[in-house]
Amino acid sequence: MRTLYLDCSMGAAGDMLTAALLELLPDPDAFVLRLNALGIPGVSFRRVAAVKCGIAGTQMSVSVNGVEEGEADHAHTHPHDHCHHGGMHVIEHIVREHLSLPQAVQDDVMAVYALIAEAESRAHGVPVTEIHFHEVGTMDAIADITAVCLLMEQLRPDEVVVSPVHVGSGQVQCAHGILPVPAPATAWILRDVPIYEGDVRGELCTPTGAALLKHFATRFARMPEMRVHTIGYGMGKKDFAAANCVRAMLGERESAEDAVCELSCNLDDMTGEAIGFAAERLLEAGALDVYSVPVGMKKSRPGILLCVLCREADREALVRALFRHTTTLGVRESAMRRYVLNRHIETRSTPFGPVRCKLSEGYGVVRRKYEYDDISRIADENGLPLEAVLSHLEGE
User: Which pTM does this prediction carry?
Assistant: First the structure.
């Protein structure tokens, strides 16, 4: 399994993540040329060699109309630190109408921005529709977010494991005044994520960095057992006693074993619709799978056995979700090991345009399955039955 591990022991920011992932590529300079060809208004990317505590790495210099922007300790700016200019509709217009990006990358960029906008909305008590971004700060953030989303598309890891995140300590100066670290928006984004305060004074994890981690992380955990092939160091702008960098490691996990928990409960007083609603909430809370089985219960009453598969790190959140969204009075837990095929998604060129295909292999088995959203869209656009689209794709 192709695994990307991100060591955030000195936090994370958009430029640091960009630089760390860039170092994993065989030709990083070619990718910088691709970034500069995107046409982000006024934005220029430059790759700069940097050394922190004797470690060589890369620093990303992003300038807007010739001016290098900064956000807190990592040289980026909080979206609310500037005068109002444009909201989410402006961001979406730029991303979807002006940049030459694959659809999936556009979707990733907007999903990351949605996390930031929601966090700013919660932190400042205003609707998301009233969250505005300054022109220069907007271009700088779009640059960082787009770069990371493009890099993730190019690297195509099957899983992204992120370490617990060091957020720093003390206070940070913002336009609104002096705020505690992590800043309110960052703290909101990092809900349910393992974070910690260390000895470093200052803000180590920015809202942009937090949103990128939250969007792409398969899970937050210690480094898994893996065979590392390439390592990248993305340097921040500030100097501390510890090397101010994000370290990215790309490699393969040898084992296809996976430790999981099964949470289950018996239900006899919920409607099918209510159970379906609960299942959707459980999946949103991080469940690997949710399924139900008809069972006979006390007093010969028919009931439902609701089962949830999850990773150890997500167990507590899912227990809470079970109690919140079902009528159960108790939840059982079983520790399990599962054996999984290595999986990845590739985009194939077809007469209908690009189509995503899920490939699975291992234990002597190779399987492929086209992404349902893609083939259903093609069927709708061409007035064809779903089976006809599948038959054409599988016959190529």
Answer: 0.66
